[in-house]
């Protein structure tokens, strides 16, 4: 949830993002419990997106494509996807511990 403190809306208003994986033919009904918890909703936009993923690993073509964003809220699965692509490209795992002092300044 974001608010006036984040400089995205007027004071006493909040912007809420409800994200879920659609499991039925009625996606709005699936998120209704979350909407009910919010109380009064001034305006609501609903968008359903198809999840896409590459048909191969891209190694032969040297063309690496990420999967679509899913319902996770802080890009957890996207981070994993990017790390997997990094490993395919350089043929080694990304090591966050290998950052040098000079690199930390940026």
Rg, Cα atoms, Å: 20 Å
Count of distinct structural domains: 2
The count of strands amounts to 2
Provide the succession of SSEs: EEHHHH
Taking the sheet with the most strands, its summary is:
2 strands, antiparallel
Total of DSSP H or I helical runs spanning 4+ residues = 4
- How much of the sequence lies in strands comes to under 5%
Physical arrangement of strands within the biggest beta sheet:
1-2
Q: Pick out the low-confidence regions.
A: none
Oligomer: single chain
Q: What structural category do the secondary elements indicate?
A: mainly alpha
Secondary structure: helix percent? 25-40%
N- and C-termini, Cα separation: 29 Å
Q: Could you say which overall geometry the principal axes of the C-alpha atoms support?
A: flat
What average pLDDT do the residues reach? 88
């Amino acid at each position: 949830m974001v608010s006036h403190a984040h400089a995205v809306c007027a004071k006493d208003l909040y912007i809420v993002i409800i994200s879920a994986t659609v499991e039925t033919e009625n996606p709005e009904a699936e998120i209704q419990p979350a909407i009910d918890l919010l109380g009064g909703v001034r305006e609501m936009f609903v968008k359903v997106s198809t999840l896409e993923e590459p048909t191969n690993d891209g190694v032969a073509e040297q063309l690496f494509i990420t999967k679509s964003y899913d319902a996770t809220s802080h890009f957890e699965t996207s981070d994993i996807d990017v790390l997997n692509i990094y490993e395919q490209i350089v043929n080694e795992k990304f090591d966050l511990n290998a950052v040098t002092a000079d690199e930390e300044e940026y």
